[in-house]
Amino acid sequence: MADTPAHQAGRRLAVRAGRAFDGQAAIPGGALVLCADGQIAGVEPGPAAAPDGWPVAEYPGGTVLPGMFDCHVHLCADSREGALDRLAGYADEDLDRVIEAALRAQLAAGVTTVRDLGDRRWAVLSWRDRVAAGTAGFPSPAIVASGPPVTTPGGHCWFMGGETSHPGGLRAAIRERADRGVDVVKVMASGGVMTPGTDVLACQYTLEQLRTLVEEAHACGLPVTAHAHGLAAVVQASQAGVDGIEHCSCLTERGFEQPADLLARLAVNRTVVCPTLGIVPGVPLSPAALALQERTGTNLAARQAMTGKLYHAGVRLVSGVDAGIGDGKPHGILALAIADLVAGGVPPADAIASATSLAAGACGLGSRKGRLRRGYDADLVVVHADPLADIGALTAVQAVYLGGQLVSERAA
After folding, report:
1. Which long-range contacts (CB under 8 A, 24 or more apart) does 127-135 make?
2. Which of 33, 232, 265, 324 makes a 20 to 30 Å CA pair with 241?
3. pTM of the entire structure?
4. Phi and psi (nearest 5°) for 253?
5. Number of domains in the chain
6. pLDDT for the residue 127
7. Are residues 290 and 376 in the same domain?
8. Angle at alpha carbon of residue 347, lines to 238 and 237, rounded to 5°
9. 111 with 139: CB under 8 angstroms?
10. Which pLDDT belongs to residue 412?
11. pLDDT at position 2, please?
């Protein structure tokens, strides 16, 4: 437990932990992180004395690291089975209730920034602006928002309101998102498990249509990330020049297949892949997910291994859960997604970077978040033990700071 001054910090606070991870690597001997006016004012060696008059929060057995990013969330989804199916019937007050609960769960898990990739009626975009203005009414993670994903008529997540397919409609959809101020464009390049009538292994758009969307988005200064499960859709999205791929499952009827030329192109093009790992152990798969596993002969261990193959091919990985879509993927389990990377062969430091420095870069925030560095936002998380020795330590969050202010704390 932190000393009492952490609760009375005002605008200046020093956070000292016996171990530290700066977003890329460990800091030997721990660190004293100086926080002032919402930013990191300095990072000193662990034994260093704090400046006169600075309260100090002490975590001698803990590890301090930058606040984490969940790069694939659905804040409108309530973390119960059928979450996406319920969206179409939600009134505005229902959406507000679900979004607030999601943000609180993420923050308690050490997530200080989320990237929402599935909005309904632009509700998350409104929340993003309230959070940024400090008018959300409670401490909240920052939000990077896509608005409703662009999808084909009747396609995956059509009920979020982003249906279009012809070139004029695709360009208009991008311009609307640019006018509304989204941070990223999400496009459904393949069908999805959660939408009946769509095929996970099939492409939803032609290559020409995807290229039209990407060209228009880039002309508006917006990056594009594509939902793609089937191998054909992953290849198509890469050829279209998307900036990121969600899931990137490379699924075929024969299981996961990752052609060498595809892996090389993803690496050379610096395409950001969010494999959306992380699932609560012991929760039964939905009937649709179980049917997909049986159809393709896949399982979690194989999914972990194929993600490790992406890493070893030099593909840039970031962590995100697909949070909120069901009982197995509730908000607040980012640590399980990071642990799945390690299980697939990703070194712990790089796995943690996938949710800190690398994630910040992928979200366009690499110059101010995701590192313990002077001038960066003082968003910090302290965990009880050493995640580099045991990645499971990330599940034991001891304290969370937003802008240098304590917003969540648990006893050791």
Report:
1. 127/75, 127/96, 127/99, 127/103, 128/183, 131/103
2. 324
3. 0.96
4. -65, -20
5. 2
6. 98
7. no
8. 5
9. no
10. 62
11. 38
